[in-house]
Amino acid sequence: MVSVSLIDADRLWTRLMALAEIGATRDGGVNRQALSDGEIAAWHRVIDWAEEAGLTAATDAAGNLFLTLAGRDRTAPPILIGSHLDSQPTGGKFDGAAGVMAALEVAVSFAEKGETPAHDLIVIAWMNEEGCRFAPGMMGSEAFAGVHGLEAIRAVRDADGISAGEELDRLHASFPDLPRKPLGFVAAAYLELHSEQGPLLDTAERVIGVVTGIQGKKTFQVVLAGAEGHAGTLPQQERRDALAAFARTAAALHDEIGAIDAEIKFTIGRVTVEPNAPSVVPARVTFTIDLRHPDNAVLDAAGARVAALCHRYAPPCTVTIAPLVDAPSNDFDPGLRARIRRAAHDQGLPSMAILSAAGHDARHLAKVCPAAMIFIPCRDGASHVEHEWANPGHVAAGASALAQVARDLALADLPFAAGA
Ligand code: GLV
Ligand code: MN
Ligand code: MN
């Protein structure tokens, strides 16, 4: 049995709750969207905590935050642990923040013990995981893994027309003394703690989820274009009403794609109507589709149905479909999964294998180094909601399992096998 003194559970919880004050919403949630003032304030707080413990802060061109506990061999590939600090507009206190604060607690506790790891241990907060203000998400981890170029990321605009590039420059200007790391560097392993965001651990009364992989996801932005006109005078049969086209198309998409099987997840989460005036026939509707399934063949077939159904139901309006995300299901590193299972067993924490239904930065890290995730339960499986909640004991248990795996990796001389 490994002692839970690998971390300070009280400090972790106190800091997690203090972080949740930045961007706190009236109903107990968090609104701390990517590259906002709130995220900048969160960076200040997290950097202060890290520097107090002797870690050094750095960033990169994609606005990722790195907090490094220096190892003996500065040239050895580092061990990366982290998650994200941005939230949904009506998000909770845990999605992302729990993973960053658990990772910071692991590194701070390590530093406090006066031990020096063989490798650098780097705590990371990835830029824009949520993809709400700037879509799609996971921009920081995608840039790190080379999935998307920096210029494409910088060009994305939010609803107010502000570009991610302008906001990245503002973030960097707020931290003029932070050194820049290269965009993407060789890493030995990546570990991410996250709440499950679903009900399985809670229902099974398990504390640790050993995440096998992440289900596949496709997202699209669809524009239906018609023509505006006077609501009182334009004859019904002459209208090219984009909102009426949306209603037909959305109903067909929900009926056909939503019924593929019990595992399909189909969501239209954002709809914009133009000109959005009560007495003007709507000329244009822009909407997003979030489509997920664990089986890549089913996901591909469902993705193809999106275009077919839009083209069938939108006329007389025209349809333009932009695919935004095309991420197949992935498997996490078996060796790291075995280490997480063993850490849970050593610490007396009931665990189970679990497929992540939500997306995470670890998906992209898995393309460039061995990667794995630890899940902890969240109350009623609720997430992306203000009442998201995780039990303090579960947060501590997850962080302690993360500490065991991260410490073992960071203390091991190279070359180590991820699963050794
Ligand atoms: C991540 O936030 C997701 O929507 O899966
Ligand atoms: Mn998250
Ligand atoms: Mn999220």
Can you characterise this structure?
The chain has 420 residues and is α+β, with helices and mostly antiparallel strands. The protein has twelve helices and 16 strands. Strands 1, 2, 3, 4, 5, 6, 14, 15 and 16 form a nine-stranded mixed sheet that branches. Strands 7, 9, 10, 12 and 13 form a five-stranded antiparallel sheet that branches. The mean pLDDT is 96. The structure holds glyoxylic acid and manganese (II) ion (2 copies).
Summarize, please:
This protein is α+β, with helices and mostly antiparallel strands and 420 residues long. The protein is built from twelve helices and 16 strands.
Give, in order, the helices and strands. Answer: HHEEEHEHHHEHEEEHEEEEHEEHEHEH
Largest sheet: 9 strands, mixed
Shape descriptor reads: globular
Count of alpha and pi helical runs: 12
Report mean pLDDT, rounded to a whole number. 96
Distance between the termini: 19 Å
Radius of gyration, taken over Cα atoms and rounded to an integer in Å: 23 Å
Low-confidence stretches: none
Query: What structural class is derived from the secondary structure elements?
Result: alpha+beta
Bound chemical compounds: glyoxylic acid, manganese (II) ion
The count of β-strands is 16
Task: Give the proportion of residues in helices.
Answer: 25-40%
Beta content: 15-25%
Name the features.
single chain, 420 residues, five-stranded antiparallel sheet, 16 strands, 34% helix, binds glyoxylic acid, binds manganese (II) ion
